[in-house]
């Protein structure tokens, strides 16, 4: 799947939500291409970045679902670490608020996270989750696009994107998102099933 096709399908989906959202997504996606080039960052890597790259490489090669799930969890934990005690505290408070279904409070914490460290992808990802839980799909989509601009390999954001596209009846676009997800996490059987179900559904629509 080409990055251009993936970006085009995402933008075509959010156009139905209005030009403001389309502009947000367009700006986010043009700042980072969603394709395999994300696996080869330019310049020297920080130790955490180098470790994250190795984890993604291991995840892509691993075919055992149980072993792959362990690697995926390591990636999730690595992405959660911000390197800032302040941001980590805000994220912890946001998580507690989400668990208590105090979504407004969670948004307040996460808004601060994105202001303090706008390059921290997990802050945007967590905020996308809260918007989704509150039923604000356009904002969830915009934040998800921002996550993928910062970290195109973010499997959580890709899965969330696929789910939102599917919920919106965009089966072809949802399939593309799952295919992108499976590029990084091929051993995920649930994702394999989601993709296969969409392939069969789309094939049935053509007959």
UniProtKB/TrEMBL annotation:
Residue stretches in coiled coil: none
Signal peptide residue numbers: 1-22
SUPFAM superfamilies documented for this protein: TPR-like
Keywords: Signal
InterPro entries associated with the record: TPR-like_helical_dom_sf (IPR011990), TPR_rpt (IPR019734)
Listed name of the protein: Tetratricopeptide repeat protein
Native species: Rhizobium setariae
């Amino acid at each position: 799947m080409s990055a251009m096709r993936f970006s085009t399908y995402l933008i075509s989906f959010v156009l139905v939500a209005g030009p403001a959202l389309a502009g947000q997504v367009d700006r986010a996606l043009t700042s980072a291409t969603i394709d395999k080039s994300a696996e080869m960052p330019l310049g020297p890597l920080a130790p955490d970045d180098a470790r994250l790259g190795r984890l993604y490489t291991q995840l892509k090669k691993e075919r055992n679902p149980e072993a792959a799930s362990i690697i995926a969890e390591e990636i999730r934990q690595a992405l959660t670490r911000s390197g800032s005690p302040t941001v980590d505290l805000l994220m912890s408070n946001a998580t507690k608020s989400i668990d208590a279904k105090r979504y407004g409070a969670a948004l307040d914490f996460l808004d601060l996270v994105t202001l303090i460290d706008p390059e921290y992808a997990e802050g945007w990802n967590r905020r996308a989750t809260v918007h989704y839980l509150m039923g604000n799909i356009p904002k969830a989509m915009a934040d998800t696009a921002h996550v993928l601009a910062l970290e195109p390999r973010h499997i959580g954001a890709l899965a969330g994107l696929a789910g939102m596209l599917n919920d919106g009846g965009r089966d072809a676009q949802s399939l593309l998102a799952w295919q992108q997800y499976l590029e990084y996490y091929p051993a995920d059987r649930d994702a394999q099933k989601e993709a296969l179900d969409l392939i069969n559904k789309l094939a049935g629509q053509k007959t």
